[in-house]
Task: structure prediction
Amino acid sequence: MLIAASSGYHSGCDGRIRCPVAPAPALAASQRPRCRALRGRYVLAVDLVGEVLYEHQKREMEATLGALLLNIARTGAYLIDPAQHLVVQQTLTQETNAYLRVRHALSIVQDENRIATPVYTRARRLRGFV
Result:
């Protein structure tokens, strides 16, 4: 007597051989269509959150650096005498008293703002000077 395939057995080629039907291998959880869709949504969500955090950190860093640069400029504006800076720019030498005063003011700016690298000034070019 032959047993139907639904019961776990099937008939062989000649109808006399009975052997167990091998069930289809179960898909791993990561291979199931529903899990693939969830994995895709998860990756998309992590990507979006990462992008939002990156933009937030970028704006925050720009604001912090802007505030630091503004503090440096304010400190320098109070300490550096424009007349002496003009003398330094006109003479272009380090032997003048004006240069020493401007350099001292710049070192104070550097120390007060905790800057590791030397601080320099940039002035507009004077007419007649190259």
